[in-house]
Amino acid sequence: MNAIIAKIHFEKNEEKKAGLLYNAAEYYLETEGSLKKDLDSAGLLNGQSVKISRELGLKSNVAKSMLLNSRIANEKGNSTAARNLCRAALDYALSNNLKNEAASIYVTSAVDIEDNENLKKAEDLKKAAVLYKQAGALYDEAETFNQISILYNSIDEPGISNKYALQAISIKKSIKRHDLYKEYTMLGLNLRVQGKYKEALAYALAAEKITENIKIKDDWLSIIYDLTGTIYSEMKFYDKSVDYYKKAIEVAKRGNDEVGINAITINTARGLLSRDKYDEALSILNNVPKYYHTKDCNTEYASIFILIYCKLKKYDKAKPYYDHLVKCNDVNNGIFKDHIGQEKVYYAMIYYLINTGQAGKTYQYINELNTLAKKNNDLLNLSQLEKVRFEADSATGNYLSAISHLKEHKLLNDSLYNINSRRQFANLQLKYETDKKDKNIKMLTQQGKLQEARIYNDTVLRYVFIGSLVALILFTGLLYNRFRLKQRSNSKLQLKQEKINVQNGLLKRLLTEKEWLLKEIHHRVKNNLQIVISLLNTQSAYLDNEDALMAIQNSQHRMHAMSLIHQKLYQSNNLASIDMSWYIYELVNYLKDCFDTTRKVNFILDTDKVDLDVAQAVPLGLILNEAISNAIKYAFPDNARGIVTIKLKKTDESTYQLIIADDGIGLPVDFELENRDSLGMNLMIGLSEQLDGSFSIENNKGLHVIITFIKNKKLMGSDDNPLNVKDN
């Protein structure tokens, strides 16, 4: 924060100062546990930003600052003023055709709408998605579709939720973004509700796979583990289910998520209950805060306690929990937060009533569950309900009806599991019998050959028996001699093998130490570069000369470009090469933050997965830094909007081409590359020669910088295609 304040003080460019003031105001607003003085500071700084932006005609800045004023008012507790300010910001953005800013306002407005107006929330988010698409902000459009998916999931509309999750996936794949864990999680949640467990499990495991390569928030990781555990439980893989529940609890505890801990604890207890581990399930439940409060209707704990105590035949202990569910059902008029919660409550009540001789009271709950299952086309629950009807009819003496429901249960159960199981078993049995038959034929053939050999040997033995006795004595002596020689040879080989093992151990240790040393070197180089960057930043605070400040800033960017390479090397298991697609993505984000380009410059990345060694990665990174910086600073004067496209493609077996193109004003007509007087241009040309590549520039609706080079032979063939996750 002090660095931002220092930059504001020394910044001469009014447009940049407005951006810095906005960033400082946003920092004070988003500080955890913001105090009144922090909010007042945020309002003061934002007011200064608005004033400068209006004077300079920076309409995008004005719209963002107006929205920030709404957020500040909301944080202060003045919801009415916040809504009015938000509406004013939206009107301003729409009247000035600021699509990106208007979309952001719609998203913020949706967050502030009450939970009982979910359809209004959805409408605002849909409007935001349309505006993001018109503005070309495809990633923001995908994220908005994901929010809509989450919203429809929360109001129990899995089909609509799936539709928007798939739209988000399609957009992200089109822009080569692979952070699809949220979308896969939503598909897993919705498909599980629809009873499509195998598809749901595939998406849940795909989401977990993605989290192994990127860092995500603990609440999403906990949801993924909990979802996977629940699906495994419903597919009757109880050991795997409990393993995932335990991982989910650990993540929830790490994030102090009490609601998540309680929910996952209940799921864990259900998994243990399914494995008949009743005492262990009770122990798990008793290690969390007591569920029951007189003012609320927490039905999850009551449901699971009823099932456990009924399994233990302790009906007196189950009764208070049953009474609690009856009261909650009456209070809610049989309507719970979602149909899954309703199913758990009713199944627990039915189980208690059947086991305590009150089966006649179960039919109203069975009928409601049947309606729910048919609505969601849930074959698993329909099968289970037929079994419950059989038990209820049997308990009430209606045996003909009981037999009918038992038959229907078996038919549904067969359609779910047994038909496929029998087919698979038949195929396996056929394969087994075929293999067994082939094996028997081979065995009989071998036995026939052995019998013929035995007859021949017996004939020969009859003629040479006496001679064989003499030969046997000689052979025995020779055999003993060979045995002694072999013993000596084995002893020598054993000694040599021990020496080889010792040498191998030493070589492994030396290799490990070398790898550690290389990582440490890269780490220290990266840290030293960061220290130099920090020293330059500190020095800039004492300079008033704008050219000097600009030179220091350019040097910082170049050092950061080199620092990213060494950072990747010491963080990766591969010390020989850099993934340039990752590197370009990180460098672009860094430069966007440095130049605050979000208001006017969009970036399009189209890069293959290219691995380069340090000797080529460093000059290529510096070229990227120079070209992107020049595009941001000079291609779009007078606050013009523009697009910078970066491509890194393989043109043939060993040749690659890097293109940094903008749709800005381009170079002057009289510009001659041979008579250049630009450090950045000279640097890019020199670095291209260092790559043993060619450098060229083109004026074609903007400036195109083109570098063609040949990859070092020692890394040729190491590229891998990016992972493409296909929908099931």
What is the second-level CATH architecture of the domain at 574-715?
2-Layer Sandwich
Strand order of the largest sheet: 2-4-5-7-6
The CA-CA distance between the termini, in Å, is: 47 Å
CATH class of the domain at 574-715: Alpha Beta
Let me know the largest β-sheet: 5 strands, mixed
Q: What is the average of the pLDDT values?
A: 80
Beta-strand percent range: 5-15%
- Percent range for helical residues? over 70%
Supply the CATH superfamily name of the domain at 574-715. Answer: Histidine kinase-like ATPase, C-terminal domain
Number of helices: 25
Total number of beta strands: 7
What is the topology?
Elements: H1 2-10, H2 14-30, H3 36-56, H4 59-75, H5 79-95, H6 99-112, H7 118-135, H8 138-154, H9 158-174, H10 181-193, H11 197-211, H12 218-234, H13 238-254, H14 258-274, H15 278-286, H16 299-311, H17 315-331, H18 339-355, H19 363-375, H20 379-396, H21 399-540, H22 546-571, E1 578-579, H23 580-595, E2 601-607, E3 611-612, H24 614-634, E4 642-650, E5 655-662, H25 679-690, E6 694-699, E7 703-710
Parallel strand pairs: 2-4
Antiparallel strand pairs: 1-3, 4-5, 5-7, 6-7
